[in-house]
């Protein structure tokens, strides 16, 4: 449903606006959901049974904008690479429908508005998000010289845990459960990004871009299984450090089984299967969120 709504907004928008919506990937909501969900875990963990709806809304809206900022920055940096990969050749900067200058301005505008939105929750939250911006800008360069860019991406995307916790509490004094959630999000990102990278592995090999698909090769599923255990362990560790109810652990088991199912069934040599599994990863995030809510209620 969310995909249809987002695609409809982009399709029906004026042509002068459409390229900018495509640049922020508004038609592909999976990316901002994967970024947002660990932040929501943190909001509910920190808030208990009654999270502040204004803080939740600010975190949600800002996630869309920060992800848009990240995509625009990525596309400007990867302009030449995107033009050589079949899946990305139509991206606005690579295709020339948006200039590099305008791409940078659009990225900066989204980054600024996101900070203003987060400041509605509290100024500390905006400052925490601002501190993550250099990491977001740095990520596209990692695939050029770092053999495992997904590891860096995991560390970057999961910083939204700190944003969510600060939005709920108003301070950046983080207890141990926050780091458990951060670890859970980091290893989860390594899973879905590794699967995502298998879509382009042949192009990456020819171009010389580094990725998890090329690093792990035929051992990818073994590594994904390790990351799965570590992600679930991070969630359980976070819960064990708080007075959370028994239902939390029951639902976390369901989340683990679902993620294991995705890892087991995906055909890493089929680009469509990789994309579908990447999209399906959002349900793991929702199930973990449901676990946190269930634990708070019980």
TrEMBL record:
Its cofactor is Mg(2+). It is found in: Membrane. GO terms for cellular component: membrane. Its main location: membrane. It is a multi-pass membrane protein. GO terms for biological process: ubiquinone biosynthetic process. InterPro entries: HB_polyprenyltransferase-like, Prenyltransferase, UbiA_prenyltransferase, UbiA_prenylTrfase_CS, UbiA_sf. PROSITE patterns: UBIA. Keywords: Cell inner membrane, Cell membrane, Membrane, Transferase, Transmembrane, Transmembrane helix. The keyword Membrane applies. It comes from the Bacteria. The chain crosses the membrane at residues 29-46, 53-70, 104-133, 145-168, 174-191, 212-238, 244-266, 278-297. Its EC number is 2.5.1.39. GO terms for molecular function: 4-hydroxybenzoate polyprenyltransferase activity. Belongs to the UbiA prenyltransferase family. This is 4-hydroxybenzoate polyprenyltransferase. It comes from Lentzea waywayandensis.
